[in-house]
UniProtKB/TrEMBL annotation:
PANTHER family: ALCOHOL DEHYDROGENASE, ALCOHOL DEHYDROGENASE 4. It comes from the Bacteria. Its EC number is 1.1.1.1. Residues 196-389 form the Fe-containing alcohol dehydrogenase-like C-terminal domain. InterPro entries: ADH_Fe/GldA (IPR001670), ADH_Fe_C (IPR056798), ADH_Fe_CS (IPR018211), Alcohol_dehydrogenase_Fe (IPR039697). It is an enzyme of class 1 (oxidoreductase). GO terms for molecular function: alcohol dehydrogenase (NAD+) activity; metal ion binding. PROSITE patterns: ADH_IRON_1. It comes from Clostridium kluyveri (strain ATCC 8527 / DSM 555 / NBRC 12016 / NCIMB 10680 / K1). It holds the Pfam family Fe-ADH. Belongs to the iron-containing alcohol dehydrogenase family. Keywords: NAD, Oxidoreductase. Residues 10-185 form the Alcohol dehydrogenase iron-type/glycerol dehydrogenase GldA domain. This is Predicted iron containing alcohol dehydrogenase.
Length: 390
């Protein structure tokens, strides 16, 4: 019986306090002469881009900086702005970029990946919505991460918001996997508490959804369980004191592991539904996940093997006699953690409008994250989960 579990990750992952110092050595063999940095003005203000500029200068790599990304999500218009800049510079320089370097969080990495796709495949980014739609490998991307959350720096997925259709497109293709990722907590200390909170819950969601996914494997299982443990131990600390480097470092590890989990095991309905809330209300991704995760977990629980439920329960440090108790424990633990880090626990607090329920539920079922959800839901089921979270 065929049962394969391919594992994709960047060829090189520089991880830990001071990891950025290893980047020059890793870049040297590529013999690069021209790079495009994709970032935003805030990251420049924090001095992180300057650190990378120094590295590029030391290697005689010339570069341009596109800093037109606004937050919180990567939209088609950011991608088009970056592409316009990219093409204009090419006309002036008559020389191609060898590489794109994204500096920032998931929004910046996703934008960089989208530019890298179009640079070698042409067309517009909507052409690549879905899975494995690219013909050619994307332009190589190096992703230097400044948040602990999205996992985009080590994934072959990009989430791009289509403002006109009010949906978030998921683009998945191993041909756009970054070649080098950098996760250095020194770049994460300035993450404000609200970003620490929402991106930390995104990490937890990646791990839990990946652990119960239909594509989970023993490799992703071990990464997911360790990541869940670290989030419950360190997220509150990182939220309460951004300068707690140990907590930052452990959350960074949790985020990297969770990124590897979802990239290889897939996600589920929390992400499918959360993408709709983000597209319609511009609400922060991790915040939406935190509200939905307990309800989706409860919905999925009949289809999750008992052992997996007890595994999660145990790794959080809880005891339960029955599966039902374990599900309740997990639900309440997620809700308590969200409360500790001041995230909302109801959709009503993020401006949810019941008139949008059917539209969002239909689109959630079409989202590619739904493919690996452990329990197949109907439109009514998805609507009921949204209602339970109101
Ligand atoms: Fe996510």
């Amino acid at each position: 019986m065929e049962n394969t579990h391919d594992f994709h990750s960047p060829a090189t992952n520089l991880i830990g306090i001071g990891a950025i110092k290893d980047l020059p050595l890793e870049l040297m063999p590529y013999k690069l002469s021209k790079a495009l940095i994709v970032t935003d003005k805030n990251i420049i203000k924090l001095g992180y881009v300057e650190t990378v500029e120094k590295i590029l200068k030391s290697l005689f790599i010339s570069y341009d900086i596109f800093d037109g990304i606004l937050h919180p999500d990567c939209t088609i218009s950011f991608v088009e702005d970056a592409l316009t800049y990219f093409k204009k510079r090419l006309n002036i320089l008559k020389r191609s970029y060898h590489i794109i370097i994204s500096i920032g969080g998931g929004t910046n990495h996703d934008c960089a990946k989208a530019v890298a796709i179009i640079a070698t495949n042409g067309g517009s980014i909507e052409d690549y919505e879905g899975y494995e739609k690219m013909k050619n490998p994307a332009l190589p991307v190096i992703s230097i991460n400044t948040t602990s959350g999205s996992g985009s720096e080590i994934s072959n997925f990009a989430i791009i918001e289509d403002e006109s259709r009010k949906v978030k497109m998921t683009i998945g293709d191993s041909k756009m996997m970054p070649i080098i990722s950098v996760n250095d907590p020194m770049f994460m200390q300035t993450m404000p508490p609200d970003v620490t909170a929402s991106s930390g819950i995104d990490v937890l969601t990646h791990s839990i959804e990946g652990f119960v996914s239909t594509e989970a494997s023993p490799i992703t299982d071990s990464l997911a369980l360790k990541s869940i443990k670290l989030v419950f131990k360190y997220l509150k600390r990182a939220y309460e004191n951004g300068n707690d480097l140990e907590a930052r470092e452990q959350m960074m590890f949790a985020s990297v592991m969770a990124g590897m989990v979802f990239n290889n095991a897939g996600l589920g309905y929390v992400h499918s539904m959360s993408h709709q809330l983000g597209a319609l209300y511009n609400e922060i991704h991790g915040t939406c996940n935190g509200i939905l995760l307990p309800h989706v977990f409860e919905f999925n629980s009949p289809s999750i093997p008992d052992e997996r439920i007890f595994n999660i329960n145990e790794i959080i440090g809880l005891e339960a006699e029955t599966k039902k108790d374990a599900v309740n424990n997990i639900k309440h633990s997620i809700q308590n953690l969200c409360e500790d880090i001041k995230l909302p626990d109801h959709l009503s607090s993020i401006g949810f409008n019941e008139n949008d329920l059917e539209f969002m539920s239909k689109n959630a079922l079409k989202d590619i994250c739904s493919i690996t959800n452990p329990r197949k839901g109907t439109l009514t089921d998805i609507m009921d989960i949204f209602k339970a979270a109101i």
